[in-house]
Amino acid sequence: MIKLNSKQLRKSQPLPKAMDQFSRNEIYFILDNVLDTFNIGSIFRIADAVAAREIYLCGETATPPNNKIRRASVNTWQWVAWEYKKTAVDAVKDLRKKIPKIKIIAIEQGENSIPFEKEKYSFPVALIVGHETYGVSQETLNLADSMVDLPMLGVNQSLNVMVSLGIIAYEALKKNFVDLN
Q: What's the pTM value of the predicted model, to 2 decimals?
């Protein structure tokens, strides 16, 4: 695997030939109206880190090229496949059409959520995160196979969407026996 330092990442413009060298995991991210460009850029970095197959940017989520996303992503937006969809519902339906056996998991707090470590993650899987204040839309939650959350042991009741997604993405890798070395 090619590993680039931060200087190389900030300047890199991958060629299609270089992209063919990377194997990808059958993991997809769906961003349901994530507004903060720092979160979006950081999610591109997470997607690159876990070798995710694709990111769906939905609704009001900003899309590249965007200077703030570029900086926060350290240009990994160029290395990770992404697609814009009008809604997260559209993204879920598109994925189910392309990959009928995909498991859709929303990362959200709610009555029906289970602790993330109790979920049975299997590839292919799509992980959904939502708006920083309002969360994943109810319409999108209705299409999810399950909903997971992270235990909050302190005073605060939630984590940043990119932090939550990163934790869950690595848990999915671990449960699918992906070698993390």
A: 0.90
